[in-house]
UniProtKB/TrEMBL annotation, chain A:
Keywords: ATP-binding, Coiled coil, Nucleotide-binding. This is ABC transporter ATP-binding protein. GO terms for molecular function: ATP binding; ATP hydrolysis activity; DNA binding. PANTHER family: ABC TRANSPORTER G FAMILY MEMBER 20 ISOFORM X1 (PTHR43038:SF3), ATP-BINDING CASSETTE, SUB-FAMILY H, MEMBER 1 (PTHR43038). The keyword Nucleotide-binding applies. It comes from the Bacteria. Residues 206-233 form a coiled coil. It comes from Oceanobacillus arenosus.
From TrEMBL, chain B:
GO terms for cellular component: membrane. It is a multi-pass membrane protein. Pfam families: ABC2_membrane_3. The chain crosses the membrane at residues 21-40, 52-72, 93-118, 124-147, 154-175, 212-230. Residues 53-226 form the ABC-2 type transporter transmembrane domain. It is found in: Membrane. The keyword Transmembrane applies. PANTHER family: ABC TRANSPORTER PERMEASE, ABC TRANSPORTER PERMEASE PROTEIN NOSY-RELATED. Keywords: Membrane, Transmembrane, Transmembrane helix. It comes from Oceanobacillus arenosus. GO terms for molecular function: ABC-type transporter activity. This is ABC transporter.
Length: 347, 237
């Protein structure tokens, strides 16, 4: 059963297109992520609550639309805003009790406190909590509302590991309950780790990330390149070229942290900075396989020398944590986990 | 749209708890109490003017300011959006907040009256007059709350209100020299004082009807102004 239907949603700003018309449907138990810029994200959120008109388009949640029956529509919809205000002087328990009364929540708060791991903090004032704990209070509030569709804006940005784990666990529980989840984020790693379907939304429209078509494309290029190789054998060298303002900069493989693919274009990350590469991901994998690099996801190659930790969020979602200052997280797909185990010699 | 008393009570309880821990707004309640204590201690037999100076100050500082501040704070802290997206309707949100302000006002005024030793000759009429006045100040506070975005702004817009309505009665003697100040005679605070003086002189309901009508007219005007501002704000968004 479909929960959310977005039809013909588009936004133009003066002469520029923020995003062209797109359709999106989210069914029960489905987690969908939209990867976009902040501007696009806030526009989409404003459209959900009617601050920005959808003009020719329509958003319906379980058949209810904002204009036909506002109250019924809003009851189906729970939004987690990144910048949400909390009643900081209330204790966690009082805060939950308040929203419980507003939403007519009948069950016990213990379950909510347990899911958000706030039992020990329940008598603490919200202003005395850490950033991550405040975020968990926000998750709890949405759990109390228990709408059909959950929208999360950057739910795991800057939170600690524990909170991220709690969040992923909550999404799994919501999924089992048959809720629909829409994740709006600017962090590809979190989109891939949490969601089943990842879309990218920008001026080129809504596109499914890591589609089959992309794979085919790269194999065609590969085939062409192999033909090239037969004609002229290039000298093998182990530097990776990148383009920086018309210049070509060569990097040593050990310098590289990881490589991310963005629409067929590979970006090489070195100390938190991204450098576009002219090579495809498959091509790079081929070159770097022998120096300790590993294709951990369809869109990612990681330098295994830099991996500090492998985190298991749930039985089939994993991330790699790098040994850098930001503790960058990189998605690790389920299939590749087995491969990595073999590589590391763990059974 | 259904009006649910349960949600009004939820908002009432939340704001009560929140306010009890809010030092900034909480301490303003002490101002009229301290004043009442000073007057009560200094003057053996305070005149009716002094009793009502304290009560009018309580109405403008506590009622108008608390109402204004708790509305402005929801905006400042970004919590209003969450409330608007919840099943609570705007009449319910404002209803819950007004209830908080109303109860705080009544408690403050009773405490002030005890401190200054005020015992009205006819408690019934005075209670009605003060209740109607409170409604006016709540409407005024709501109006200012809708206009101001932060608690800081709220504490600034309260100043002219405090001056006009709180200290208005002091300016009354000057009205003879400056005809423009005769407007003061029609302010709700002056009307309240006049009414109380009449009551002390032994007047009944019929005699003070005119004063009550004028205060009530202020309530109507403030309520209409508030709903106009509210409609306009809603359209802007």
């Amino acid at each position: 059963m479909t929960i959310l239907i977005m039809k013909n949603i588009e936004k133009h700003e003066k002469d520029t297109i923020l995003f062209p018309s797109f359709h999106l449907a989210i069914a029960k138990s489905e987690i969908t992520a939209i990867y976009s810029t902040l501007n696009v994200r806030s526009t989409v959120l404003d459209m959900f609550i009617g601050n920005i008109p959808t003009i020719n388009g329509e958003i319906t949640i379980n058949g209810e639309s904002l204009f036909k029956n506002k109250q019924a529509y809003l009851l189906q919809l729970g939004i987690y805003y990144f910048e949400e205000g909390l009643y900081e002087r209330l204790t966690v328990r009082d805060y939950f009790a308040f929203f419980g009364r507003l939403y007519g929540f009948q069950k016990s708060f213990d379950q909510i406190l347990q899911l958000t791991q706030l039992q020990e903090k329940k008598h603490k004032k919200i202003k005395d909590l850490t950033f991550s704990e405040k975020k968990r209070v926000q998750y709890g509030r949405l759990l109390i509302q228990s709408p059909s569709l959950f929208i999360f804006e950057e739910p795991d940005l800057n939170v600690d590991m524990e909170t991220k784990r709690i969040f992923i666990n909550i999404t799994k529980i919501l999924q089992e309950d048959g809720k629909g989840i829409l994740l709006l984020t600017g962090n590809m790693e979190s989109a891939i780790t949490i969601a089943g379907h990842v879309y990218r939304l920008d001026e080129d429209g809504l596109r499914l990330f890591e589609t089959e078509a992309e794979e085919q494309n790269t194999s065609i290029i590969e085939a062409e390149e192999r033909e090239d190789e037969k004609e002229s054998k290039p000298i093998r060298f182990n530097k990776i070229p990148t383009k920086v303002n018309e210049k070509i900069v060569l990097f040593d493989p050990p310098e590289i942290d990881y490589i991310e693919s963005n629409d067929g274009q590979a970006s090489i990350y070195i100390k938190g900075e991204a450098f576009p590469s002219s090579l495809t991901l498959t091509n790079l994998e081929e070159r770097l396989k022998h120096v300790g690099f590993f294709r951990c996801h369809r869109s990612y190659i990681v330098n295994l020398q830099k991996v500090r930790e492998v985190i298991t969020w749930t039985r089939n979602s994993y991330s790699l944590v790098l040994d850098d200052k930001e503790k960058t997280q990189i998605p690790l797909s389920k299939g590749k986990m087995a491969e990595l185990r073999d590589l590391l010699g763990i059974k | 749209m259904t009006f649910s008393a349960k949600r009004v009570m939820a908002i009432f309880q939340k704001d009560m708890k929140d306010l009890s821990k809010n030092m900034y707004v909480g301490t303003t309640i002490l101002t009229p109490l301290i004043l009442a204590m000073i007057y009560g201690g200094m003057i053996d037999n305070p005149t009716i003017e002094i009793h009502y100076f304290v009560i009018n100050l309580a109405l403008s500082i506590v009622t108008a300011f608390v109402q204004c501040a708790i509305i402005a704070e929801e905006k400042e802290k970004n919590t209003l959006r969450g409330l608007m997206l919840s099943p609570a309707t705007i009449p319910e949100i404002l209803g819950g907040k007004s209830l908080v302000t109303f109860i705080l006002t009544i408690i403050t005024i009773i405490l002030c009256a005890m401190l200054t030793g005020y015992e009205p000759a006819n408690l019934g009429i005075i209670a009605i007059a003060i209740t109607i006045s409170t409604l006016f100040y709540i409407a005024l506070g709501t109006l200012m709350g809708l206009l101001s975005r932060t608690v800081m702004e709220a504490s600034i817009v309260i100043l002219p209100v405090m001056f006009l309505f709180g200290f208005g009665t002091i300016l009354q003697p000057f009205a003879e020299d400056y005809p423009i100040l005769s407007v003061i005679d029609y302010l709700p605070s002056t009307q309240l004082l006049e009414l109380a003086t009449l009551v002390e002189a032994g007047s009944g309901f019929v005699d003070v009807g005119g004063n009550l009508a004028i205060i009530f007219a202020w309530v109507v005007v403030a309520t209409i102004a508030t709903s106009i501002v509210f409609k306009k704000r809603e359209m802007d968004e």
